[in-house]
Amino acid sequence: MSAITGIYQFNKDSVRLQHGRLLMKSLEKFPADSRQIWNDHKVFLGSHAQWITPESVQETLPFYDYERQMVITADAIIDNRQELFDLLPIEIVDRISLTDSQLILLSYQKWGEDCLKHLVGDFAFMIWDQRQQRLFGARDFSGSRTLYFHKNQETLAFCTLIEPLLALPYIEKKLNEQWLAEYLAISGMVDGVDSSITPYQNIEQLPPSHSISVMNNKVTLKRYSYITQGNRLKLKSDGEYVEAFQSVFQEAVTSRLRTHRKVGSQLSGGLDSGAVVGFAAKNLQSEKKLLHTFSYIPPDDFKDYTPKYLVADERPFIKSTVEYVGGISDHYHDFEGKDSLSEIDDFLKIMEMPYKFFENSFWLKGMFEKAHEKDIGILLNGDRGNFTISWGDAFDYYSTLLKKLKWVRLFKELDQYRENAGVARLGSLPTIARIGFPMIDRAFPQGTTYSIPALINPEFAKKMGVYIKFKEYGIDQTGWYSNSDSFSQRKKHFEDVSQWNASSTLAAKLSLRYSVWKRDPTNDIRLIRFCLSVPENQYVQNGVDRALIRRATENYLPDKVRLNQRVRGVQGADWVHRMIPQWEIFIAEAQQLSRDKRVLEYLDGQAIKVALQKVELGPRVEFATDPDYKLLMRCLIVYRFLKQFD
Fold it and tell me: Distance between alpha carbon 210 and the CA centroid of its chain, in Å?
């Protein structure tokens, strides 16, 4: 793992080494096992390396291949090494020591830019091809590693982080109002619909699934990966689907265990992280290695106010997994004294931009801190699992049966679902009907739909034309997709690269700070394509939602976790409780925000006042999901970020 950086000079002048050194100096605050540079007349490349894999230890990076006259700097772990060894091909004797960056370089040498069709893993890299006088780079399909750049008439400069680019004397730190408008207008967790822009006017981002090429003084960005539902997989039996899934998932997990340090995993009480842990621990046990798990728990004085189908403290389910799987050293952390408000400034430094996931910010960072203390190199998780391995919402599937008039099958499923989930059979029909036929909601609306009020000042939204732009992406005035059924959401999730940026940015930047690489087997592109090919009736059957992963984890997870359809964990339910000691500070800053005329040019002052009236009444821990509470916290994060431009 490395932070990478570099400069390409368009004109005939030599690249200024002092500018390259400025970039490298800005990275010195992060831990590194090696810091190296390479340069010639037109190009400067740098690497701030953290050795995670066995092959990366003592690696020379940037790496110059004298025979091919190419040099690479890379922030990468490649997971399909064996496949590439055979395709390139690589001599058996050379395979053990060959680094991932060299593997990328050899792939580029053989296939050119088509090498991206063959690479599986997390990566951002840049290659200088001296013979072609071409700079070429890419970011993996989901943007697991970040890559920012600045270009003007003379120079292109790039880096894993934004701050080093701002250290260059010719880059002015200016707010990008278009980015801010998109961020404020979108109610979901996505930053914006345009993944090439950043909060800074003069700095762009290479989007996920994109390559960048610089040749003849022309910069070209190109999307190389599209994940869509292909041909349906047709197997003979349910058992064959389980076996096929287990094979693909095991490969995704095993390929992400490669480190010369310890292996860790985040673990909740649910299916996604549980499945990752179950498959990983069995693999490590065969090598007589422990898997270290890290789990978040609420503080001892927190009283769970959530409904009976939710649970804030997942320890009973987590411990059940740990005891059943074996080979695990489990760690539980309540991060006493930490809260969402006191973490804002540090999190803004990490993210280099505003963020929306404040409820979980302190423990997301805390997991990396604890993993670093245990000398963890790889920290597994199952973040993408809802869209891959544990896909299968029962009501959405039942709505398709309703639309196809498959009444017998529907009512049989509902009977079985009632027994498994403990819900009334006919009581579910109105919900299923509304999912299948959205016009019912438009004609006969029921109650209020949960949503965070818009953060954006309506006049600012109009000035920036943000809602006009949203229409092109199918996003309506609510700031989210107008077609909200889970099938459409899943399709959009994999089609729109903007969906990946927020979570990927967090993982990449926390990895760099703590020298711990977060890796998600549920995000493996091979696994994603497999899961998209599986028929819907494998995901919901016999009254069981998420049916494929439940069947596939038999003998991997305890039935208490594997077959649980009655309760689910909810993380972040204690964020208001944690902020009680800070509440007066929270109110005072929110009041200050409500009077700041400059900031209110961007934020919706009326919505802030309404929210403030509620917050001023005092902390209500059960209001953790209240839209006004959440709006005020999100606005406060933006407020602090905007003050950096004063």
Answer: 17
Q: Give pTM, 2 decimals.
A: 0.95
Beta bridge partners of 296: 333
Q: Which residue has the tokens 């404040």?
A: 358
Pairing relationship of beta strands 155-159 and 148-151 according to DSSP bridges: antiparallel
Q: Whose CA is closest to 247, among 530, 541, 550, 518? A: 530
pLDDT in tens, 302-332: 999 999 999 999 999 999 999 999 999 999 9
CB contact at 8 A, 341 and 226: no
Amino acid at 45: L
Instruction: Indicate the burial class of 318 (C-beta count within 10 angstroms; 0-12, 13-18, 19 or more).
Output: buried
Burial class (CB in 10 A: 0-12, 13-18, 19+), 376: buried
User: CA torsion sign, 482 to 223 to 508 to 95?
Assistant: positive
User: CA 30 to CA 159: how far, in whole Å?
Assistant: 14
Cβ(209)–Cβ(497) below 8 Å:
yes
The whole-angstrom separation of Cα 526 and Cα 522 is 10
Token pair recorded at residue 452: 């965070």
Q: What is the pLDDT of residues 43-98, one digit of tens each?
A: 999 999 999 999 999 999 999 999 999 999 999 999 999 999 999 999 999 999 99
Distance CA 646, CA 642 (A): 7
First to last CA, the chain: 35
- At residue 568, φ and ψ (nearest 5 deg) are -140, 150
Q: What DSSP string runs through 239-303?
A: HHHHHHHHHHHHHHHHTT---SSEEEEE--SSHHHHHHHHHHHHHHHHTT--EEEEEE---TT--
DSSP H helices, 534-625, are: 547-552, 559-562, 575-578, 583-594, 605-615
Token code pair at residue 20? 């390259």
Q: Which residues of the chain have a pLDDT value below 50?
A: 439-449
Lookup result for tokens 């270290």: 292
